[in-house]
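Researcher: Here's the sequence for the chain we discussed earlier.
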Amino acid sequence: MNKPIMAKATAVWLVDNTTLTFKQIADFTGMHELEVQGIADGDVAAGVKGFDPIANNQLEQAEIDKGEADPLYKLTLKHNPAAVGEEKRRGPRYTPLSKRQDRPNAILWLVKFHPELTDGQISKLVGTTKPTIQSIRERTHWNIANMQPIDPVALGLCKQSELDAAVQKAAEKRAKEGETMDDDARRKLLSTEQSLEMDESPRMPTAIEGLETFSLKDDDDKEDDIPDADSFFNLPGDSDDDEDDDR
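Model: Thanks. This is the structure I predict for it:
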């Protein structure tokens, strides 16, 4: 916990009850220096009641004394054992109400394009339950007919780095298990950075594979047997017609 609680109210109290500089108060509360100056001028936080950081166990009087004696001194927030670990508390991913209706579409996208991801990984990415994922995998979801696969990153349900990390973890797991994968499955397991760094190599389309050496000429034909352009105009009977015309 790097900043005091009720920062603006704390700044109001420090402005009214100490001779600390605006910068010292701004650094301690995490506010902008001009905002603190606005509090002193009465333009900001009008009507906000000051919050005593000393009485609320956030700051010691000795720190204030040091700050008033030295304008360059930075106040140190008092250590609160009860606040240790509060910022690292983990829980289920919260999804805003406006985006919860998009979760089934995101799950369908992950199931379709990354079937190697486990239900647990998908649950962490988009914040859903395993029964919901299972129903979409088995296409028994009540709204499956109206669902469309949409990238969860595009929907804002997870970050691209989180998706890449989950895909990379699935790739490492498959590699350890020794499971063979075709080119299409291997490409899906690449992260965005890896796929962008790959060299572009032109590939022959499957539909015309094997036709790159196709030729209309037999291997046994000789170049001498190829007729020239003039021979196409020497049609049979041309000489006889010429003789009749001379007569």
